[in-house]
Design brief:
The chain is α+β, with helices and mostly antiparallel strands. It is 20% helix and 37% strand. It contains two helices and six strands. The protein has a four-stranded antiparallel β-sheet, with helices on one face. Strands 3-4 form a two-stranded antiparallel ribbon. β3 and β4 form a beta hairpin.
Length: 112
């Protein structure tokens, strides 16, 4: 099993959710987060005063999947979240040792 974590632009969330659904992903976890990478934030003007916004709003999408789904999921997220501009985001893949469905007690891939 793998845990795919994607950090994407907020307006791309619906596109990513639809793309994951099309490749057979049944559940996702979404968290609103803030951060920065190469973008390094930007400056904004508020009531005549300029200030720096260091942390930009992003969305973190987490998906637990079977190993066989990995390539399809990575491809779906990459295509759905791509704009070609700086700040499109990142994907991280982590190995999952165990998963347990609390309601039924199912373990492993059956718990996904």
């Amino acid at each position: 099993m793998k845990l795919v974590t994607a950090i994407i632009k907020p307006f791309k969330l619906d596109d990513v959710r639809e793309a994951l659904s099309e490749v057979g992903v049944q559940g996702i976890t979404v968290t609103e987060v803030k951060g920065f990478g190469r973008q390094q934030g930007h400056t904004e003007l508020y009531r005549g005063a300029e200030y720096v916004v260091d942390f930009l709003p992003k969305v973190k999408v987490e998906v637990a999947i079977e190993d066989s789904q990995l390539d399809a999921v990575l491809d779906a997220i990459t295509k759905a979240s791509h704009t070609g501009k700086i700040g499109d985001g990142k994907l991280f893949v982590t190995a999952v040792e165990q998963a347990i469905r609390i309601r039924t007690g199912e373990t492993g891939n059956e718990a996904l």
